[in-house]
Amino acid sequence: MTVRVAVNGYGTIGKRVADAVAAQQDMVLVGVSKTRPNYEADRAVAKGYKLFIAGEGKKSEFDAAGIATAGTVPEMLQQADVVVDAAPEKIGRENLKLYDAANIRAIFQGGEKAAIAEASFNALGNYPRSKGKRRVRVVSCNTTGLSRAASVLTSRWGVESWEATIVRRAADPAESGRGPINGIMPTFTLPSHHGPDVQTIFPDLSIATTAVVVPTTLMHVHVNHVRLKTAPPGAQAVVEAFRETPRFHVFSAWEHVDGTPQVMEFAKDRARGGSDMMEGVLWENGIRVDGRELYFFQAIHQESIVVPENVDAIRAMFDLAPDARTSIAITDRALGIGH
Ligand code: NAD
């Protein structure tokens, strides 16, 4: 079976999901949408993607820019089996009416509330729960990173309690209008919403999170303190557990990747998927075990970590693979994610 996929909203996440879908053998990209012409709309057409007009967008504006369009979003939906909604936060909720009218399955992103979907999704965490579902939400970038790590730790040593401080990037690189450009801004919701969001994947996990926003655009960094139920034999066992799990990249000390600037430089040098880092990033010398106490850092490339998850969510909904590991392997091979 080949699943026909539409991507509604062609921004930071949508353009990456479109490329990822187009790279899969069991999926075909029927089109993407933009509300107005810009350089991204131009790139979509240059890549051979059919471009549809979203929201209040006007065909005359696209015509004036010389950018060919193939119709409107409702017309795009008629050609698809599933739509990946990658519109800005809370717009997905509005778009749901279109999807109901078109009687089409839909995937939403982490900017939408969990209640929008029948299941929240993380490939390593709870792949089977989305089998056959019509509405699925791929959790946010931070929740994806925490959920991937939870899948490693809960299955091996069990988690008694987990505290994570999320050091959040202020904006994506292209978002020149956001800040702060100087300052460290506490998030005064205590604990932050990320813990309950992880519990949409791992309902029984005891996790509490706090967050601060810092002036960087590259990545988020999580500072984790986990009390495990049983003590790992040592830090090296934890390093190996993350190394042998797909969708993690663990840097060794000799690589001198001192922080997020070097992680993103590594991604550019590796030059796959543009300059994306779809793995959760750990540092070998940033993992410490003291009995049942585990401390580790994880860096999250917010622009791309959810991209393979969207592909796996489609596979889960349409039962295209027998299990999570098979889907992850297919996705990762197509996207060049690996060890
Ligand atoms: P974005 O602003 O970069 O892109 C959204 C795109 O949707 C834009 O091109 C916009 O023009 C378009 N759009 C606006 N109104 C629309 C409508 N009515 N219909 C269709 N398209 C419309 O946003 P983003 O960062 O890609 O975020 C998309 C979703 O992904 C949000 O839910 C967000 O919370 C989530 N998310 C974002 C990140 C991140 O760091 N950027 C990470 C994980 C998840």
Mean pLDDT: 97
Low-confidence parts, pLDDT < 50 over ≥5 residues?
A: none
Number of strands: 15
* SSE order: EHEHEHHEHEEHEHEEHEEHEHEEEHH
How much helicity do the residues have?
A: 25-40%
Q: CATH topology of the largest domain, anyone?
A: Rossmann fold
Bound molecules: nicotinamide-adenine-dinucleotide
What is the rounded Rg? 20 Å
Output the number of helix runs.
12
| CA-based shape | globular
Strand order of the largest sheet: 3-2-1-4-5-7-6
Instruction: Profile the largest sheet.
Output: 7 strands, parallel
Please state the second-level CATH architecture of the largest domain. Answer: 3-Layer(aba) Sandwich
- Class by alpha and beta content: alpha/beta
The CATH fourth-level homologous superfamily of the largest domain: NAD(P)-binding Rossmann-like Domain
Q: Short summary of the structure?
A:
This protein is of the alpha/beta class and 339 residues long.
Overview of the molecule:
- This protein is α/β, with parallel strands linked by helices and 339 residues long.
- It has helices at residues 12-22, 39-46, 59-65, 73-78, 91-102, 123-126, 141-156, 194-198, 235-243, 260-270, 307-317, 324-335, and strands spanning 3-8, 27-34, 51-53, 82-85, 105-108, 119-121, 135-138, 159-169, 185-186, 207-214, 220-228, 248-251, 280-283, 287-290, 293-300.
- The protein has a seven-stranded parallel sheet with strand order 3-2-1-4-5-7-6, sandwiched between helices. A six-stranded mixed sheet has the order 9-10-8-11-15-14.
- Helix 11 packs across helix 12 (324-335).
- The radius of gyration is 20 Å and the shape is globular.
- Bound molecules: nicotinamide-adenine-dinucleotide.
- Nicotinamide-adenine-dinucleotide binds at residues 8-14, 33-35, 54-55, 86-89, 91, 95, 109-112, 140-141, 172, 302-303, 306.
